[in-house]
Amino acid sequence: MYYPSRMTQQSPVATWPRVALMQRLALAVARGMPWWTSGEVRAERIPALIAKMHERHGANAGLSEQRSRRRAGLPRSRLLILAPPMGASVERVPWWLLATEDKLQGESLENAADRGHRIYMRDFELVRLVSAGNGTNWTWRVKPDAWARYVDQGEHLAKAARRAGRGAGRQDPRTAQRFIDRLGTWPGMAGINQQRAALFHTMAVLSHGTLHIPRFAVPRFIPSPKPTLPECND
């Protein structure tokens, strides 16, 4: 018989900044938690959500409780929440609940491996791609429909920058450079880097070398801080 335990100092952290959250989502799916659902929660209700998901599903359980759930034939689950930006006033933040099986009572789960039910975060989606030297891995990329718009915009700006470089046209090449620099600030996940590299190469060719193409920094895996117990005020 399995009995849920109280959250402990060894329980995994639930709230993460964007890049770290994207890393944790990819890692959880890769390690056998493809079933997922998501929603939003008011910022002041984050501790209550963490406590509720732990009580209902054992979400973010410590290693000992995870072993107990495995022995009892119960799915393990992980709750991940986008941390509110420091100093920003945010009413609601998104959260994701992942599980090893489609058996969380009261939850309607999707399979991240299904093309029509991928985990997404704004214009980014979690996919399984083949990358040179790393084989098949879970990574993030821009959704195809959204990326098509970026490609159209980038190619248009690159052609305009070439004309401006020749003294023709009214388009300032700095507009294209700002577009490149903005995309360069995106998270350096393998799938995103593949997309940007292809687009930036095309833009460099179309602009005849007018534009400066940045190198992408691959983010290091952000380690877990020491967990702290949330204050839950109902």
Q: How far apart are the termini?
A: 29 Å
The ordered H/E elements are: EHEHHEEEEEEHHH
**Structural class based on helices, strands and sheet pairing:** alpha+beta
> What's the helical proportion of residues?
25-40%
Which of globular, elongated, flat, extended, rod-shaped describes the shape? elongated
What is the number of helical segments per DSSP (H or I, 4+ residues)? Answer: 6
Provide the spatial order of strands within the biggest beta sheet.
Answer: 1-3-4-2-5
User: Average pLDDT, to the nearest integer?
Assistant: 84
Low confidence ranges: 1-5, 7-11, 226-234
Tell me the radius of gyration: 21 Å
Question: How many strand units?
Answer: 8
Strand-residue fraction? 15-25%
- Major sheet details: 5 strands, mixed
Instruction: Supply the number of structural domains.
Output: 2
Describe the protein.
- With about 230 residues, this protein is an alpha+beta fold.
- It folds into 2 domains: about 15-120, no CATH class; about 145-205.
- About 35% of the residues lie in helices and about 20% in strands.
- The chain is built from 6 helices and 8 strands.
- The protein has helices spanning about 20-30, 45-55, 65-70, 145-165, 175-185, 190-205; strands at about 15, 35-40, 75-80, 90-100, 110, 120, 125-130, 135-140.
- The protein has a 5-stranded mixed beta sheet with strand order 1-3-4-2-5, sandwiched between helices. It has a 3-stranded antiparallel beta sheet with strand order 6-7-8.
- A hairpin with a 2-residue loop joins strand 6 (about 120) and strand 7 (about 125-130).
- The longest helix has 22 residues, at about 145-165.
- Mean pLDDT is about 85; it is low at about 1-5, about 5-10 and about 225-234.
